[in-house]
Amino acid sequence: MKETFFSAARRILYPARCPGCDGLLPGHISGQTFCDTCISQIRPVSGKVCLRCGKPVVSVKRDLCRDCEDADRTIIQGRSAFIYTGPMKTAMYRLKYSGRRVYAATLARQAYELRGDWLRQIGADVIVPIPMYDKKKRQRGYNQAEEFAKALSELMSVPVEADFLKRIKNTVPQKGLDRQNRQKNLKNAFKIRKSSVKFKCVLLVDDIYTTGTTIDEAARVLAEGIGCRVYSFCICVGAD
Ligand SMILES: [Zn+2]
Ligand SMILES: [Zn+2]
């Protein structure tokens, strides 16, 4: 494809950087997203995973991860593309805190390459991102889960409803809280804005899957509110 004047100018003014190490990428290699060193360190989710949430499980004897074993899940099934480690961890940090919202499209493309089959067979009629509290979103300028959802929507040809769920509580980060307090923190955190719209199957998306408390609370609100089936998909997942 011939490069236009504007894309050449943009490439020179804003050279593409590797989301993993922030090194400059050779602009002429179209489609390259991470540098070769980072690509070799990225770990796609593989091997045995929790049948419910898709988190890798260490023991071959177990079908569910520890969190799903003790929880009454609403999501029918969840999957993620990459292990939250190495260059993916830095890429997620930059996507979230360094204003690199453009990484959402890159990551969505790579996640879709890995999990396209699973994503297509769900038969979702809408993609809903985990919403951010309004004030927080204004401060950051965007919601990374929403950016990911939009990019995924184009790849899957499934519409995205970024305002379908609203976060009505400014929750504290889940990290560091025990199970009981995580649930308490998220209780009544979400509400549906348009309960008159009846979707049958919702694909909930977020950037990182950790214990599943956030996603499952959002799923519960959706399932109880409009009686839909709910699946989840995240770019990264933490190890069990
Ligand atoms: Zn790199
Ligand atoms: Zn699980």
Name a few traits of the molecule.
four-stranded parallel sheet, binds zinc ion, 2 domains, 240 residues, two-stranded antiparallel ribbon, alpha/beta, globular, single chain, Rossmann fold
Tally of strands: 6
Distance between the termini: 44 Å
Give the overall average pLDDT. 89
- How many domain regions? 2
Helix content: 25-40%
Class inferred from helices and paired strands: alpha/beta
Unreliable segments (pLDDT under 50, ≥5 consecutive)? none
Oligomer: single chain
Q: Whole-number radius of gyration?
A: 18 Å
Task: Report on this structure.
This protein has 240 residues and is an alpha/beta fold. The protein has two domains: 1-41, no CATH class; 43-237, Rossmann fold (3-Layer(aba) Sandwich). 39% of the residues lie in helices and 15% in strands. It is built from nine helices and six strands; from the N terminus they run H-H-H-E-H-H-E-H-H-E-H-E-E-H-E. The protein has helices at 5-13, 36-41, 66-70, 86-97, 103-122, 134-140, 144-156, 179-186, 213-226, and strands at residues 77-83, 126-129, 165-167, 190-192, 201-209, 229-237. The chain has a four-stranded parallel beta sheet with strand order 1-6-5-2. Helix 9 (213-226) links the parallel strand 5 (201-209) and strand 6 (229-237). The longest helix is centred in the middle third of the chain and has 20 residues, at 103-122. The termini are far apart. Bound molecules: zinc ion (2 copies).
